[in-house]
Design goal:
Elements: H1 3-14, E1 59-62, H2 89-101, E2 107-111, H3 118-135, E3 141-145, H4 152-161, E4 164-166, H5 174-180, H6 186-208, E5 223-229, H7 236-250, E6 254-259, H8 277-292, H9 297-300, H10 314-321, E7 328-329, H11 335-338, H12 346-356, H13 363-368, H14 373-376, E8 380-381, H15 389-393, H16 396-401
Parallel strand pairs: 1-2, 2-3, 3-4, 4-5, 5-6, 7-8
Bound molecules: iron/sulfur cluster.
Iron/sulfur cluster binds near residues 67 and 113.
């Protein structure tokens, strides 16, 4: 099989993995004339998207889509009737370098089906990164998938070459993983996440107390994971609780949510239809609220309903449920309070706090701060604006934010 055909198969097989953002790594470049590639700002890697909305701007491939495991939600599972291919280590290295030189990509995202054993597979993945870094002096971004059961020495070596490592938690609930991916073991996954966290903490400490010029590196862009949503019955509340636990326990940089896509010859244990993509989007918004806006998972989703509303964003939904906390006086509110106002982003809040030391904030300033007036004005007091309490407390406020109902077409 020629490399072109392998690339078609192995890039297609990798597209279901959403966890490929390249943020947060160290800065490297080749302006010294040695080496190849850079991770300089403005050269962000995940800046193009496939028609189905998935990011593909890294060279995002599997080493092989053959796999010993039979995870029911995965198109590469052993019982799947798809064409199989396998790159050699040298083929992936050559593709990465060639694509980089042609300006097609700025980095590599490499994962693999599990062949022979976890150690053998991980060793192959590490060999690609080692060759790129040591023989080709490649300084672009590298993200490697980590095989949970792989030997500690291989994981340490992966962290030496990769910017980011990730291990997919796959399912929000342990019993879903047992049912849908019987060979996978949530304890092994979490144990490896814990090992990564220890190594990341150690590397950070070594940097802080470094006596030599270049202390040993370990995955400077940290670790991430991916959760498939909609393949089991887990509610959004369960998903966000699991994410909060993962962020807290393993200091993950990101949890990626990937809406389950029905696959050919799918098992009966899987739903026939995918969840709406907007659900994935709402989970990302809720995830941001937890990481940057000071919300707890339990505040974002209504305990009784268990699901995020699909028609409005989760911060607006929270504000509508807590109208007694509004209107908020923008001239005196704390940062934490301002972050809870619908339409207020973190940058806008910081700019408000800087500006209000010098002058009062007026309605016209909202546009300058890129704050949507329609969303924010019912909840805030400005020097020239006070919202109507009748509007704030009335049943019609929620309706104002909901998308207008449209008549369905007849399909002809
Ligand atoms: S281990 Fe499971 S999820 Fe990973 S490639 Fe194999 S079948 Fe797919």
């Amino acid at each position: 099989m020629d490399v072109q055909r392998k690339l078609e198969i192995l890039a297609d097989a990798a597209k279901y993995d959403a966890s490929c953002a390249s943020s947060g790594t160290e800065k490297r470049d080749s302006s010294d004339g040695k080496g190849l590639g850079s991770t300089a700002p403005g050269m962000g890697i995940c800046h193009s998207y496939a028609p189905d909305g998935r990011c593909i701007s890294l060279l995002k491939v599997l080493l092989t889509n053959a796999c010993n495991y039979d995870c029911l939600y995965c198109v590469n599972r052993t019982s799947s009737n798809v064409p199989r291919a396998r790159f050699t280590v040298d083929e992936v290295v050559k593709l990465t370098i060639d694509f980089y030189r042609r300006n097609y990509i700025e980095g590599l995202f490499l994962s693999s089906g599990i062949i022979r054993s976890a150690d053998y597979t991980m060793e192959q993945v590490v060999r690609v990164a080692r060759k790129l870094r040591e023989e080709h002096h490649f300084r672009g971004y590298i993200h490697l998938k980590t095989i949970p059961e792989a030997d500690d020495a291989l994981i340490a070596e992966a962290g030496k070459y990769a910017d980011r490592l990730s291990i997919n938690i796959e399912m929000p609930l342990e019993n879903s993983l047992t049912k849908l991916a019987p060979e996978k073991n949530v304890r092994a996954i979490r144990r490896t996440m814990g090992r990564l966290r220890l190594k990341l903490d150690e590397a950070k400490e070594n940097h802080r107390t470094a006596t030599q010029a270049k202390p040993a590196r370990f995955a400077p862009a940290g670790q991430s994971t991916q959760m498939i949503i909609g393949a089991d019955t887990a509610s959004d509340k369960t998903i966000l609780d699991t994410s909060a636990n993962l962020y807290g326990s393993y200091r993950l940089r990101r949890v990626y949510y990937s809406a389950f896509s029905p696959i050919p010859d799918a098992s009966r244990a899987l739903p026939l239809v995918p969840p709406p993509l907007i659900r994935e989007h709402r989970l990302y918004q809720a995830d941001w609220l937890m990481r940057f806006y000071g919300f707890d998972a339990g505040e974002i989703v209504d305990e009784a309903e268990g699901m995020l509303p699909l028609d409005i964003d989760p911060k607006l939904a929270w504000a509508l449920h807590h109208r007694d906390r509004f209107p908020l006086d923008v001239s005196t509110a704390s940062r934490e309070e301002l972050l809870r106002v619908p339409g207020f982003g973190t940058k806008a809040v910081d700019r408000i706090i800087a500006t209000r030391r010098l002058t009062s904030i007026r309605t016209a300033d909202l546009a300058r701060l890129h704050i949507p007036q329609k969303k924010a004005l019912p909840f805030i007091v400005l020097s020239d604006h006070r919202p109507s309490l009748h509007l704030l407390e009335g049943a019609g406020l929620a309706e104002r934010f909901k998308p207008k109902a449209t008549q369905l077409g007849f399909g002809f």
